[in-house]
């Protein structure tokens, strides 16, 4: 009878479903379209969130961003940034506002309010959700990013979504690659530090044992109760 190895169970937070319904249920007008994309990342949520929440540094993982400068604010809610887009895309700049940044629930909302590009009335919502996996040293993170945008002039809803999905999908895959490498590096570094600390602790224990055992008698030359055959003063 063949043995089927049990699969590792993934456990999502009980509030994940409610959060998705709250933040990713799209309200579209007749001239708008939108979609939701999901990326599962093999890295702990705090690490992934630390990269995403940096409104002033989207180029840390967004491949099509050449540079970014804050026009107002300090990176908190209400801040406005000017993003320079890499060549090759039908855009040059994008002016974006941070509408929501919730460090407790891990929610980020951004609106495009200007710039030289084709995405009119673009609004995005990104949420992070922790996934626990049995036998793993750290949990996984599920990133959900949804958006609403006006249909591009001269294009269909399908073409508009295809264009936006391509950009977001590339960004999410880039985020996954970067944070997974960071998680692996930090874990290996931690393992090395723990191994080093364990060695030092073991050495200290051995030294204490030797010091306790070596009790030399001036008359017999015994060490730890063992006669070493030396008579002092002979």
TrEMBL record:
A biological process from GO: abscisic acid-activated signaling pathway
Molecular function as annotated in GO: abscisic acid binding; protein phosphatase inhibitor activity; signaling receptor activity
GO CC aspect terms: cytoplasm; nucleus
UniProt KW keywords: Abscisic acid signaling pathway, Cytoplasm, Nucleus, Protein phosphatase inhibitor, Receptor
Compartments in which it is found: Cytoplasm; Nucleus
InterPro entries: Plant_def-hormone_signal (IPR050279), Polyketide_cyclase/dehydratase (IPR019587), START-like_dom_sf (IPR023393)
Residue ranges of the TM segments: none
Main location: cytoplasm
Cytoplasm in keyword set: yes
Keyword Nucleus appears in the UniProt entry: yes
Pfam family, one: Polyketide_cyc2
Top-level taxon: Eukaryota
Similarity-based family: Belongs to the PYR/PYL/RCAR abscisic acid intracellular receptor family.
Record's protein name: Abscisic acid receptor PYL12
């Amino acid at each position: 009878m063949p043995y089927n190895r049990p699969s590792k169970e993934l456990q999502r937070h009980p509030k994940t479903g409610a959060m998705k319904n709250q933040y990713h249920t799209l309200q579209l007008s007749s001239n708008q379209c939108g979609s939701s994309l999901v990326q599962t990342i093999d890295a702990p949520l705090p690490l992934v969130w630390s990269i995403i929440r940096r409104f002033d540094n989207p180029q840390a993982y967004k491949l099509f961003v050449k540079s970014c400068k804050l026009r107002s604010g300090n990176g908190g809610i209400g801040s406005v940034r000017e993003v320079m887009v890499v060549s090759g895309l039908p855009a040059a700049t994008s002016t974006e506002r941070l509408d929501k940044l919730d460090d407790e629930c891990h929610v980020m909302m951004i609106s495009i309010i200007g710039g030289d590009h084709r995405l009119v009335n673009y609004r995005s919502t990104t949420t992070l959700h922790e996934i626990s996996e049995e036998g793993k040293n750290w949990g996984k993170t599920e990133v959900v990013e949804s958006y609403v945008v006006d249909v591009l002039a001269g294009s269909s809803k399908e073409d508009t979504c295809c264009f936006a999905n391509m950009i977001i999908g590339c960004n999410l895959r880039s985020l996954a690659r970067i944070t997974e490498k960071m998680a692996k590096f930090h874990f290996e570094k931690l393992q090395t530090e723990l191994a080093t600390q364990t060695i030092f602790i073991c050495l200290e224990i051995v030294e204490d044992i030797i010091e306790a055992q070596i009790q030399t008698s001036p008359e017999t030359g015994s060490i730890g109760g063992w006669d070493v055959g030396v008579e002092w003063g002979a």
